[in-house]
Write a structure and sequence with these properties.
94 residues; mainly alpha; 70% helix
Length: 94
């Protein structure tokens, strides 16, 4: 079995990061949001920093794991379709 293509290796490393980050954010995101919102004035409706933090946490919860899975699939496809070893790529040199 040969070594991994560099692009495939990069995709896999980012996939691992995202697949680990997704569940961590899902578990600790609400706790972070609750701790950040403690001590706020009751009755005030709009907190820009809390709303932005809530948006970022929700975005990471919904996109990190699926994007990591897509990167694993992309790494497999790149590895299968990449030219082998010293094969000519067919691109003209400039």
């Amino acid at each position: 079995m040969g070594s991994l293509n560099p692009v495939s290796k990069r995709c896999l490393s980012w996939a691992v990061v995202l697949l680990v980050l997704g569940p961590i954010v899902s578990i600790y995101g609400p706790r972070i949001l609750v701790n950040a919102s403690e001590g706020l004035q009751p009755g005030q409706v709009f907190y820009p920093s809390i709303d932005l933090l809530n948006f970022v946490i929700a975005l990471l919860q919904w996109t990190a794991a699926p994007l990591g899975a897509a990167l694993v699939a992309a790494a497999v496809v790149i590895q299968v379709l990449a030219p082998k070893g010293g094969a000519e790529t067919g691109s003209p040199e400039r």
